[in-house]
Amino acid sequence: MLKNKILIGKKMNVRLLAVALLLGGSIAPRNAIATSPEEPALKVTLQQAIDIALSDNPTIIVAGKEIELKKWAKKDAQAGLLPTAEITGAYSRTLKKQTMVMNFGGQETTIQIGTDNNYSGAFVVSLPVFAPALYKSINLTSADIELAVEKSRSSKLDMVNQVTKAYFQLLLTQDSYDVLLKSFSQAEANFNVINEMYKLGSVSEYDKIRADVQVRSLKPNLVAARNGVNLAQLQLKVLIGLDDGTDIEVEGNLKDYEGEMQERTAQAGEFSLADNSDLLQLDLNAELLRKNLELQKASFLPTVGASYNYTFTSMNNNYNIAHYRWFPSSSIAFQFSFPIFKANNFTKIRQTHIQISQLLDTRVNTERLLYMQMSSFLDQMSASSEQLASNKESVAQAEKGRIIAKKRYEVGKGTILELNDSEVALTQAQLTYNQSIYDYLVAKADLDKILGKEDKITNK
Fold it and tell me: CA 321 to CA 121: how far, in whole Å?
């Protein structure tokens, strides 16, 4: 009888030890893997990551230079309205002079005409008086600048979208790693307790084997999650233009966006594609084609130009330039050109009309696709919001289930299978909870891109 009491006391002490270890399992932080104490990671918020990408990413820099290039192209076209001035000079040496035979009273005389050396210099100024094609060309370059600006804006919107999704991807991988790390640490604690209990003979070998298998089955998932964090960090660093050797760490976790997620859902309403960059670029391309059509039609109009010419000439038979006599002359002239017929002008106009029609049809189809995508993103956001409350409750129920499973195992009424199942259920519930927030944030980022929102573009 006394022996049984002592054995029961030992079992109760082992159970209490198990509870203490289960509740106090050690957890290594994710930062211990990602960074080292000697080189602290660069901590960035979402807005800071976007600002760095917009200032340092080569794609954005190239888009900005394209705008500058188009502006200089416009200045080049406008320079055609200004007068042009040039100085010209010419020298010719007569190799064989022209001869003429003249008859004076029956006497023929041979005369050579011309001089050995001929010099001329001129100062010429020309100015377009009426040039319709030039005016239309200037308007064409103005539309081209607007298109380049919109393309630059589109590049920024695309960069914001990519950085935002990469940022949330890193948050998801970090939170998933934390969940799996806690689960792995708890499984290790369970195994240590059960192993000690097995040595004391209070549990079967089957419980020990199941606990060991649970730890080993979680190890590959933990390693994969750690690699996922490293890959997500690398992707974000590439997007924002950081060196590969620079460690980066995003602040916060997905749970921080739960309040914003509920607030956004409450404010959901009608949306417009008026600021969509794809549609705006199609509209600007159509305007560019219309201006090009006007330029082609301007080829049917007359052109008028004016010029002023001031010339010096000298003709001599020697090279004593210092004693040459120079004879100046000046003139002013107007040039008038009226095109009568040029066949390819008509074919070019017809081609441009077809291109405009094609672009309008493309715009209609693009708008339909964008509305479909917008509806899909809104549905994803709505579904994620609806799942959030359920997933949050699932986490709470799974935590409660784990506590009950531990209590049952503590008093000897539960099995190791129930304990393991409760741990798996809790891990799965936490991962699903994080995934629902991530799905919402990614759908919202894609929706903001379609709507052309610029609230995160501070580096304009």
Answer: 14
SS3 assignment, position 6: helix
Residue 138 CA, distance from chain mean position: 30
Q: What percent of the chain has pLDDT over 90?
A: 21
CA 15 to CA 199: how far, in whole Å? 13
Strands 327-337, 303-316: pairing is antiparallel
Nearest-5° Cα angle at 389, 387 to 390:
65
177: β partners: none
CA distance 453 to 45: 19
What pLDDT does residue 191 have? 79
Neighbours of 290 (CB within 10 A): 15
* DSSP character string of 283-324: HHHHHHHHHHHHHHHHTTS-EEEEEEEEEEEEEESS--GGG-
Please answer whether residues 437 and 254 qualify as being in contact, where contact means their C-beta atoms are separated by less than 8 angstroms.
yes
Which residue in the block uniquely carries the two structure tokens 């709505």?
382
Q: Quote the CA–CA distance of 451 and 449 in Å, as a whole number.
A: 5
Three-class secondary structure of residue 118 per DSSP? strand
* Selection from 326, 370, 399 nearest residue 23 by Cα: 399
Residue for token pair 């998932």: 221
Is residue 270 classed as helix, strand or coil in its secondary structure? coil
Of 404 and 111, more confident: 404
112 φ/ψ angles, rounded to the nearest 5 degrees: -95, 130
Identity (one letter) of the amino acid at 29? P
Residue type, 146: E
Cβ atoms of 460 and 180 closer than 8 Å: no
pLDDT in tens, 44-83: 888 888 888 888 778 888 888 888 888 888 888 888 888 8
Give the per-residue pLDDT at 289. Answer: 92
Report the distance separating Cα 308 and Cα 87, nearest Å.
Answer: 12
Cα separation, 396 vs 433, in Å, equals 11
pLDDT given at position 2: 31
Tokens of 103: 């008859």
Phi, psi of 83 (to 5 degrees): -70, 150
Expressed in percent and rounded to 5, the helix, strand and coil fractions of the chain are 65, 15, 20
Residues 222 and 431: beta-carbon distance below 8 Å: no
Identify the weakest region by mean pLDDT among 30-39, 146-155, 398-407: 30-39
pTM of the model: 0.75
The two most distant CA atoms of the chain are separated, in Å, by: 172
Residue type, 334: F
* Residue at token pair 């794609």: 59
Give the model's pLDDT for residue 262. 66
- Given a cut of 60, whether residue 424 has pLDDT beyond it is yes
The two three-digit tokens of residue 133, written as one number: 């094609």
- Backbone angles phi and psi of 91, in degrees to 5: -140, 135
